Amino acid sequence: MRLDHLSFAAGPDGLVGTAQRLGGLLGHDFVDGGIHPRFGTRNMTLALADHTYLEIVEALDHPASDKAPFGQAVRARSALGGGWLGWVVAVDDIAPVEKRLGRSAVVGNRHRPDGTELRWRQIGVNGLISDPQLPFFVQWESPAELHPSTGADGSFSLACLEIAGDPQRVSEWLGQTVEAPLEDIKVEWVAPHGTPGILAVQLQTPRGLVRL
Predict the structure, then answer these.
(1) Helix, strand or coil for residue 52?
(2) pTM, two decimal places
(3) Average pLDDT for consecutive 10-residue bins of the chain (212 residues)?
(4) How crowded is the C-beta side of 4, counted as CA atoms within 13 Å?
(5) Regarding the domain with residue range 2-152, which homologous superfamily does it belong to in the CATH classification?
(6) What pLDDT, in 10s, does the model give residues 170-180?
(7) Strands (DSSP E) along 20-167, which ranges?
(8) Domain positions in the chain
(9) Cβ of 116: how many Cβ atoms within 10 Å?
């Protein structure tokens, strides 16, 4: 179990505008990640060190975004002005998570602009919707060389997560201690005064530490 990526919902300036704004703060461009046809969303990504990445995601004007929980979550967060949507944990075998949560994972896929298809299985988005401090889970089915973190040169890395929430609650959701997927990442837990979830993310960049 490890941290796979962080999701940021596009704001009023749309996917491209949000990517340009955050990329300008970080000093690095996001790349077009393509469309999630099953979820009615599309994203742009930034590869980070340690097999992690950032994604900025936007709901499309498509029926899938109204039906799929992930599309619903993205649309709802964007409607609030955009911002951090959640964090995602990768597992080698998603079956124990399915058993613990009592439901089956759904197939996810994304078509990159060059036609390459990425495939995975995911579960737990409904948990994120009801309690945004909770991550959801993915098991990648695509080869490791296609992972969105491929190509990272190590100059951009995650330094700290600031989360409004309860680490004990998150540990219960994970089925093991919250340190398992976050052992190499500093986490600052803040008692929630309102909606729980990611408050901010600190990244180490060639420009120094940047807080988004």
Answers:
(1) strand
(2) 0.95
(3) 96 97 96 96 97 97 89 96 96 96 95 95 95 96 96 92 95 91 88 89 96 96
(4) 19
(5) 2,3-Dihydroxybiphenyl 1,2-Dioxygenase, domain 1 (3.10.180.10)
(6) 999 999 999 88
(7) 31-36, 41-48, 52-59, 83-90, 106-111, 117-123, 136-140, 157-164
(8) 2-152
(9) 11
